[in-house]
Design brief:
Blueprint lengths: L1 E2 L2 E2 L4 E7 L6 E5 L4 E6 L2 E9 L5 H8 L5 E4 L6 E11 L8 E8 L4 E3 L3 E5 L1 E2 L5 E7 L5 E8 L6 E5 L4 E5 L6 E13 L6 E3 L14 E7 L2 E8 L7 E9 L12 E11 L7 E8 L5 E9 L6 E9 L5 E10 L15 E7 L2 E4 L7 E3 L10 E9 L10 E19 L9 E5 L4 E4 L2 E2 L12 E2 L2 E9 L8 E6 L2 E2 L1
Antiparallel strand pairs: 1-2, 1-7, 3-6, 4-5, 6-9, 7-8, 8-9, 8-10, 10-38, 11-37, 12-13, 13-36, 14-32, 14-35, 14-37, 15-16, 15-36, 17-31, 18-21, 19-20, 21-30, 22-27, 22-31, 23-24, 23-30, 24-25, 25-26, 27-28, 28-29, 32-33, 33-34
Organism: Pseudolactococcus chungangensis CAU 28 = DSM 22330
InterPro entries: Dit_BPSPP_N
Protein name: Putative phage tail component, N-terminal domain-containing protein
């Protein structure tokens, strides 16, 4: 007999062991039916003869412990009992003394010394991961499940025909949507724009069968009207359109848009005419907001700036008009050659325009949820005017557009990172992550902590988005009455 690791074979000869095969269950009834059945404590009676005082004091110390210790008998050496000395009759004053030990086993069962496993789950033809184990004992026993992460994961499910245990969060996502400001255009050659010959969304009477091109002065590009197209006795010229790209979720359109551009609008002589428009439209090609600079003064040097907006029904509103002199002087012209900075901004229903050092702002409730999908650049000449009657400069040098409501998808750092180890110990129904107890990881209602005698197949599940499922392993220790 080995007691708590101490081999008593040099101290005792065992004459008889009675492990008590009766009274193993306690039953409760309500007079009609069985309501509860549980294993009771057990007493093992061991009768020995003292053959040596070698180690006797050490043995007494072990037997007098206030907690259970492990007892292993030589006729059943692969199993142990957790017991505590209940009573004894020991007369150690002479060799050959007979001693009777009564050992109380509180749980009433014996346990295998060597656990079975670990058994590793494999993927079946149906795609599921499972492991089949055989409990050759005659009692239900707790299992220990270990899952080692091979990729990010948020959930571990373990189930059989009779129970399930869930760890983590089955609904945890690997990504999240977020809104950010994203620059979708930043250009000084305007190659992202394509020629448009259809209707002008601000005024369909304006003709668009002309062309624009890049001309360079040193290292600076000027996007300008190169061919005014057919004379329609009104504004006519060239139109170019930029289509907003899809955001990170595949959606096209933005409720909140910022645009910076640099424009030169400068008359080299009195009476020159011309028009630049920067327009933004929705998916129906209805005007949402626009920045309009034009000169129709055929005699003097007076230009017009207009802040445009849509009315939500395909129409147009002029929110503000200012006049200015199209000279080269800073005091007269915000669009002279050394300057030309301007911007326009939509934030829901609010529209803001830069004008000569100020930022006029307007609220257009009809546009609150309208999404912009296109930007138009238009260059026009007036009626039959040609040659030096055209503005010396009515050009764009740069443009930047930012989608301030761009939705994107980004990765989330999930609760179980690669190489994380998650362990569930059925004996105490607890979960440990990397060796640390995590009381909140086990999902309420989990009930798969033991396996019955015989063959059991356990199936496993991880997060749907997990790229490489964890390595699942099962261990258990058999027990018998």
């Amino acid at each position: 007999m080995i007691v708590d690791g101490f081999d008593t074979s040099d101290t005792f000869i065992i004459r008889k062991v009675n492990r008590g095969f009766t009274g193993m269950y306690s039953n409760k009834t309500d007079l009609m039916r069985l309501t509860q059945r549980k294993i009771t404590e057990r007493t093992i009676n061991v009768e020995v003869t003292l053959i040596s005082t070698y180690g006797l004091n050490e043995l007494k110390t072990i037997l007098n412990k206030s907690s259970t210790v492990r007892f292993v008998f030589s006729d059943d050496k692969d199993w142990y009992w957790d017991g505590i000395l209940d009573t004894s009759k020991i007369n150690s004053s002479y060799l050959g003394a007979d001693i009777s030990l009564e050992i109380l086993v509180p749980d009433g069962i014996k346990h295998a010394i060597n656990p079975k496993g670990s058994y590793t789950a494999a993927q079946g033809t149906d795609g599921r991961y499972s492991v089949t184990i055989v409990n050759e004992g005659n009692l239900d026993v707790p299992i220990t499940m270990t899952a080692t992460m091979n990729a990010e994961n948020g959930y571990i499910g373990m189930y059989t025909d009779y129970g399930i245990t869930e760890i983590g969060n089955k609904e945890e996502s690997d990504t999240e949507d977020y809104v950010s400001a994203t620059t979708i255009l930043n250009t000084n050659d305007f190659s992202e724009f394509t020629r448009h010959t259809g209707a002008n969304p601000e005024n369909s009477a304006k003709g668009n069968d002309g062309y624009a091109a890049i001309r360079s002065e040193g290292s600076t590009n000027y996007f300008h009207l190169s061919n005014a197209g057919t004379n329609n006795n009104y504004w006519h010229g060239a139109s170019y359109v930029y289509d907003f790209p899809a955001d990170g979720t595949g959606h096209v359109g933005a409720k909140n848009v910022y645009c910076y551009f640099n424009a030169v609008f400068w008359a080299g002589m009195m009476g020159q005419t011309g028009q630049i428009q920067v327009l933004f439209t929705d998916a129906n090609n209805h005007l949402v907001m626009g920045y309009d600079i034009y000169k129709n003064d055929t005699k003097g040097n007076s230009g017009v700036w207009a802040a445009l907006a849509g009315d939500g029904n395909g129409g147009k509103k002029i929110l503000k008009i200012n006049t200015f002199q199209t000279s080269h002087l800073d005091k007269d012209n915000p669009f002279n050659k050394p300057r030309g900075h301007a911007d326009i901004y939509k934030n829901g229903a609010k529209l803001r325009y830069y004008w000569f050092g100020s930022y006029p702002e307007f609220t257009v409730p009809e546009l609150k949820d309208v999404e912009i999908t296109k930007c138009y650049i238009n260059f026009y000449q007036l009626a039959n005017r040609t040659g030096n009657q055209l503005m010396s400069y009515f050009d764009l040098r740069r443009m930047m557009i930012r989608n301030d409501s761009a939705e994107s998808i980004r990765d989330i750092k999930n609760r179980y990172q690669p190489e994380t180890t998650v362990k569930m110990t059925g004996a105490d129904s607890k979960v440990y992550v990397n060796g640390l107890p995590k009381l909140t990881e086990k999902v309420d209602g989990s009930n798969l902590f033991t396996i019955p005698p015989g063959e059991t197949t356990i199936y496993f599940q991880c997060s749907d988005w997990c790229t490489t499922p964890p390595t699942y392993q099962i261990e258990f220790t058999e027990a018998n009455l």
